[in-house]
Amino acid sequence: MIIAEAMAREGARRLEARGIRALVLPAVAYSVAEYAAAFAGTISLSPATASAVLADIARALARQGAKTLILANAHLEPAHIASLSAAVDRIRAEGLLRVAFPDVTRKPWALRLTEEFRSGACHAGRYEGSVVMAERPDLVRAELMRRLAPNPASLSAAIREGKRTFAEAGGPEAYFGDPAAATAEEGRRTLEILGAILEEAVLNP
Hints:
Distance between the termini: 25 Å
Structural class: mainly alpha
Largest sheet: 2 strands, parallel
CATH class: Alpha Beta
Strand content: under 5%
Shape: globular
Order of helices and strands: HHEHEHHHHH
Low-confidence stretches: none
CATH superfamily: Creatininase
Number of domains: 1
């Protein structure tokens, strides 16, 4: 949620600089999260419920005069992304408002992100850790992070192979990539890219 919120703020800042009024809504805290089901505290919605929530939000925004809904997403679980895509299809079919949803797991957006992201080994690793260090360094347990060995297993490849949990995918502790290499500087650069992606998705539908 931290990454998505920061992405939304950066995208809004860029749009405002172009004279386009942009409001950042509170983050949707619950969605599809089955890959982490084995970890205590994980609460997952069904894809249908997750889609319905977004469609209801869009309906409420449309009634209040909003013209465009922009989805800033940093949760990359396939079923979650599918639920977002289904919501986008429903919103467009109902003619509620315009929707911009740049799926960063796909081209051309994915190619602009970091090497670790493109490798698919990017859950709680250097890519995500860097953004959290830039945004909420108070939440980072730096000493523990620096002791974590790299985990080069590609989560995206494991998903394509049909693995259904982090442990099956080769991440029993739910991290993929190299968290010890994360830096706030890389996080700030990544957020600039993510914000630019949102901006461009709005300007070039």
